[in-house]
Specification:
The protein has 24 helices and no strands. It has two domains: 257 residues, MFS general substrate transporter like domains (Growth Hormone, Chain: A), CATH 1.20.1250; 196 residues, Up-down Bundle (Growth Hormone, Chain: A), CATH 1.20.1250.20. It is found in: Membrane.
Length: 500
């Protein structure tokens, strides 16, 4: 028996991807030759027969941790100018110029949009590991330019470079984590991305504390970010490449080797069989942009884009922006206020990590958006003339902390995890790029228009609009999002994608 298995193993390593898939079909005929419609309806309920035991999570965990360094950098660069902005404006000669200060903050968003727009094509063309390394490069160069800048132009150029890396990183991280994680811990691993982002934001806040006491400390804040970026680039040399990407390129033998690193040798055969159910390998032809906007793929791309749009239209970035002013009204310093917000965000993310693979993505999304809607109603009540001053302050602070906490429970981490799960392997990277671009565009306009809308509409009406978007998100999730907990990426694809 064992010689026969070794002979079969050596044989399928010499076969092309298509021949390999045919060999698996012959070997697993009873399992794979199920009627397509029956399989599609059953997959999201019970799934096919599984291995008697799950692969060890310890094998894939180091690779996921390395990937989340990009998310740490994402969070760090989002917050790195918040505390030092006043010192930067004084040293570079644009103090009091609110337009210039806004550009220092928002130039990253423009770069992030550019990076996210091309992220899918980069991830598919170079592979996930090289895409991570390419993401780290502009973050190192941009941080160095900002740290050594003598003028506002140099600062903006550095922020633009950093932004391109920020736009590329989240897409590649979401793809990589979804593709290298065992199904039974994929939700937990996906939540680590949000935790890493929170830690990055808190690190930027912590490192920026001495900025008012030490002249030029803001330059140190930028230099510090080059360290994790360099670690990310070096760590990817030793990390596994995505087996899904390798198989799509027709590199079957390499995919087996990476599955062995990630899952263990006893799970390689079943993992390759999963891939063979839908992907036939050698599919190196490029995906046209038009394919993502209509036809078989329109539904999943629409779901993904709408989830990211609703995430931003919920008002989360507006709440982050306005939090310092609310806390200042009750006498809490801005540094302490940011710490409260950071702790709420991190607490929610940790809870989501525990619940993601127990309750599932859909449940967390629904309850998260519902909690955010209720939190916004509290903000509306706080702005009401019927509330006393003391009650108004309590409602404002409590509603804000509750909003951030409930956001971190689902609306924050779930979309970035769910979308790589529901996108077919062939379009996964490019569809993620489209959805992330939608995210950045709406993020930009919410940040740009928030203060103007607050002045013209008032807090009651504006927060009511945010609450309405959150309530709309609850309905949208209930009607359109499927549960992916514990399912392989191939099972999810069969269940969602219409048969041709």
């Amino acid at each position: 028996m064992w010689p026969r298995q070794r002979e079969a193993a050596s044989m399928y390593k010499r076969l092309s991807s298509r021949d390999y898939s045919d060999a698996l079909d012959m070997e697993s005929r009873d399992y794979l030759n199920t009627d397509a419609e029956e399989e599609k309806s059953a997959l999201l309920q019970n799934g096919p027969d599984k291995e008697t035991s799950n692969p060890s999570w310890t094998l894939s965990f180091p690779h996921v941790v390395a990937a989340t360094i990009s998310s740490f950098l994402f969070g760090y660069h989002l917050g790195v100018v918040n505390e030092p902005l006043e010192s930067i404006s004084v040293d570079l000669g644009f103090s009091g110029n609110t337009l210039a200060e806004g550009l220092v903050v928002s130039t990253c968003l423009g770069g992030a949009f550019i990076g996210s727009l091309f992220s899918g094509w980069i991830a598919d063309g170079l592979g996930r590991r090289k895409a991570f390394q390419l993401c780290a490069l502009p973050m190192i160069i941009g941080a160095a330019i900002s740290a050594t800048s003598k003028t506002i132009a140099g600062m903006l150029l550095g922020r633009l470079f950093v932004g391109t890396g920020m736009g590329l990183g989240p897409t590649v991280a979401a793809l990589y984590v979804a593709e290298v994680s065992p199904a039974f811990v994929r939700g937990t691993y996906g939540s680590l991305i949000q935790i890493a982002t929170c830690l990055g934001l808190m690190a930027a806040l912590f490192i920026g504390i001495p900025v008012k006491e030490i002249v030029g400390w803001w330059r140190v804040c930028f230099w510090v970010s080059t360290i994790p970026a360099a670690i990310l680039a070096l760590a990817m040399i030793f990390c596994a490449e995505s087996p899904h990407w390798l198989y799509k390129q027709g590199k079957t033998a390499e995919a087996e080797v990476e599955f062995e690193k990630l899952l263990g040798v006893s799970h390689v055969k079943s993992a390759m069989a999963e891939l063979s159910k839908l992907d036939r390998g050698d599919e190196v032809e490029s995906v046209k942009f038009s394919e993502l906007l209509y036809g078989r793929h329109f539904r999943v791309v629409f779901i993904g884009s709408t989830l990211f749009a609703l995430q931003q239209l919920s008002g989360i970035n507006a709440v982050f922006y306005f939090s310092s002013a609310v806390f200042k009204r009750v006498g809490v310093p801005s540094t302490l206020a940011n710490a409260f917000i950071g702790i709420s965000n991190l607490t929610g993310s940790v809870i989501a990590t525990v619940l993601m693979d127990k309750l599932g993505r859909k449940v967390l999304l629904q309850w998260s958006f519902l909690g955010m809607s209720i939190s916004m109603v509290l903000q509306v009540a706080a702005a009401s003339s019927f509330a006393s001053d003391a009650r108004s302050l309590y409602l404002s602070v409590g509603g804000m902390l509750m909003f951030v906490l409930t956001f971190a429970l689902g609306a924050g981490p779930v979309p970035g995890l769910l979308l790589p799960e529901i996108f077919p392997n062939r379009i996964r990277a490019k569809a993620m790029a489209v959805c992330m671009s939608v995210h950045w565009v709406i993020n930009f306009f919410v940040g740009l228009l928030f203060l103007r809308l607050l002045e013209q509409l008032g807090p009651q009406l504006l927060y009511s609009i945010f609450a309405t978007f959150c309530a709309m998100a609850v309905v949208f999730v209930k009607r359109n999002v499927v549960e992916t907990k514990g399912k392989s990426l191939q099972e999810i694809e069969i269940a969602l994608l219409p048969q041709e």
